[in-house]
Amino acid sequence: MKTAGIIAEYNPFHNGHKLHIERTRREAGADYVVVVMSGSFVQRGEPALTDKYVRARMALLSGADLVLELPVLFSAGSAGDFAMGAVSLLDKLGTVDVLSFGSECGDVDSLCQAAKLLAEEPAAFSEALQNGLRQGKSFPAARMAALCACMPVPDADGLFGMPNNILGLEYCRALHVRKSAIRPFTIKREGAGYHDAALHAGEQVSSATALRHALQADDAVRDKAADAALLQKIAPFIPQDLYSVWQDLLCENRLLFPKDFTKELRYRLLLEREEGFLRYADVTRELSDKLRKSCLDFQDWDMLCGLLKSREITYSRISRALCRILLGITQEELERARKGDYVPYARMLGFRQSAAPLLSAIKKNSAIPLLPKLADAQRLLPGDALSMLQKDILAAHLYGSALSAKNGKPPENEYTRRLVLV
Length: 422
Fold this sequence. Notes:
By secondary structure, the chain is an alpha/beta fold.
């Protein structure tokens, strides 16, 4: 039995994601595909566009066999923490043979070579990195310059500067650091670029960014005609067998954006304004001071990120910090999780009933508990692991509350949610 792992957000799920699952199964020769997916909040530090159970269903209907939740401590973290958390989960299952990811370059050997430099930091690399920092470059820019200096390849800036390549590099680094037996496997990205914000007529693969922009632009209009027009607009870019799922999402007003959490964020900021925000993960002293000055003067989440954005602090980094504050994720908690070898449980969101042999193999070989239901957590998890899971539950309940405020329906109780079965 050969099993492939995929790390994803599916925010939202589109044709490119389905193609990736299909090609992974075919080209990697996988009998089963396990997806580790972000839950209620994603790596940009924003709420996921759609509920995690909906995204799990989309993935399963499109070929995945098992969907596990990446804990929010890592799903809303930097690329390094995101990758280390997800790779640790896949590695501890004891059944995953390959990790499949998309990349702009399609060159896994170059990514692995660069990942080794990052993991081992030889003297030449460290010296080049320090030179870049002394020149006033940001850490990511200095690191990229050091990689280019130590690993001369054609178009090094493109190799180390493209978003999917960067994340793939972090996956390879995590595998190297863990001395994992999982083999990296990359599929060259097709269609629109990662940051392409436009939907292009005649194409079938868009970026998730473009789909989010299209859906957010029409979010204020909620009637049958507008929903039908919006579905027609995004239809070329989503799998046909998911149309009915999207019809329900639009009809029931079940899409969330950062602005939908503005009230909750404002409350947290006002509550702790006097004390400051230094104890939270990803919050520097500079950012804490700026937040204390700005938290009385913003209209919504996006506006606050815009007010705080600078050449040194990117929008995504600010949004991640706001997400940490909203969820109460401290730097101490994050450090404790890192020292505890990242993810200590495998929480199931859904699976294919035909994947019973995969579940049996995981139960036999996994180094961490497999959680099909929350009721098992108290019995199976030690204190720190249970605390990590409680952050996931908090994130889900905050997500459900924001969704309820938007569409007027009762919020879902995470403790009674059922696994997605297909």
